[in-house]
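Bug: token stream looks shifted between consecutive jobs. Job 1:
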Amino acid sequence: MWQSRRFTCRMKPRGDLDTILSPERSSIDDPPEDCCAKLRIGAHTSMTLSELLSPSVRRGLRFLHENQLPYGEFRTYASPSIDLDVAFFDSSVFVTTFVLYSIAGVDSPCTTTMTNKATSFLTDEMRGPGLFRYYTSKNIRSIGFDLDDTACASVVLRRISPFVVRDRNVETFIENRDEAGRFYTWVGDSALENDVDSVVNANVVLYLGDRDETKSACRYLIDTIRSGCESDSHRYYLDDTTLYYAVSRAYAHGTSSLSGARDAIIERVLLLGKDDGSFGDELATACAVCSLANFGYDGLTRLKDALRYLEGRQRADGSWRRVAMFQQPGMYYGSEELTTALCLEALTHVAAM
């Protein structure tokens, strides 16, 4: 499935925010009153940018805008070391889907620009009946179609440009399940050597929602979490908080069948809490906060402690450090863009409470 890789290091280009925004909107740190963007968290919250966006969120948005590649991709880095201290750009659709999802609630000029570019990028990478591969067409490596990338890309495209995918790939998802009704990772012939990953199943359920064909996957996710078998259930992801996050966002988007995992996830996440307000590293903390918020946890004091931790870990350029989120044998993946997007999602969740 995965192939051995050779990497080359590339420098990060920086965008020019002032070429995108008009003079009246040249700073997202100080938006004019008549042009205030809105932040929408959930179905019923709508508040102005000045009311909800902290300086940390504004700096994070600026970092993402300035580091998005000209054709719309947000970078993925690969490294043989889990700390990603020596890492190399590895063009992929995956991180871009997470960034788009995390910033979708912030309606501002720079977010609109990033979203439009990223949407064009994902649309260009789509093949056949709405399918996606992990590697992009710009990468020298190639790999088969998979349900994880396809689900994550389809979720954001359906939200932004619903006519791009138009549910053309739903049949492919339904056809790629095991005897127990759980979703495979790989599409088609790859299923002969396929695997079932809990985070992949949660991402698929996020896309497909509650339907007869997802009942078994939802039950599998609930049983896995309730029985404390999370760590043995995901092959491609490094931390259980990623599973909690994936299940929680599927639930928050209307997959009520996952409600049986709510109490167990809240309990497990809270047990991860540390004295400094974190739930682990920056990425794990962001996933934990989003999980709690998506399940309606109302312990605002605990969430604000995590917010202060995240704000304290933000770097001068507005980013949060590169943390590995997923893996293959001998290689780890993450990026500042990925961590930053999830931290922004966490901060805006808490701000909206």
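Job 2, same session, no restart:
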Amino acid sequence: MRRIGVAALLCLLSVGAVTRRAHRAEGAESSAKVTTRDLIVVYLSTQGVNYSPEYRASIRSIRDSVTKHMNRLEQRLVMRGVSLEPMPEAGLRDMADLGRFDELSVGGNWTNLAVVRYLGPEMGAGIRDSEIPQIVLLERDITHDGSAKLTVGEERELGRIVGTGDILDWIKRGTPIQRR
């Protein structure tokens, strides 16, 4: 009986030692920095330019098309929808018809924080970068140090597609993303 008790005790001690080594190994791995890169597709629009069912279907196809070009191990796709509708409810309805977005910014019309961020503080006739609809392609690095620290890097602009015709052409060409 004593032999079984001693054997059981030795077995428990060895399991405990293995468990402690595994936790130390996990701790070592989790303290390593891991950096991933986000590819961000920002679609800026308003109801007046999202009129035809074909156009809406093309916009809904962007997520799948862009995903085909990505290296899933190194990148994550973020789809952002920005509506220039004055009222949030109208912007939400408009964006819902255009597909699945990971982030939305609606309401506020031309003074919406995301509109100002992506189009700049000066918008109007003759300024091509303020035409709607528009797609802004960005990337950013996200670093997680394995503990509680997360660092979100600056967004870098990769390109802009302005106007319904250019957006449809970009989609027909397979949504190519050019790195600068």
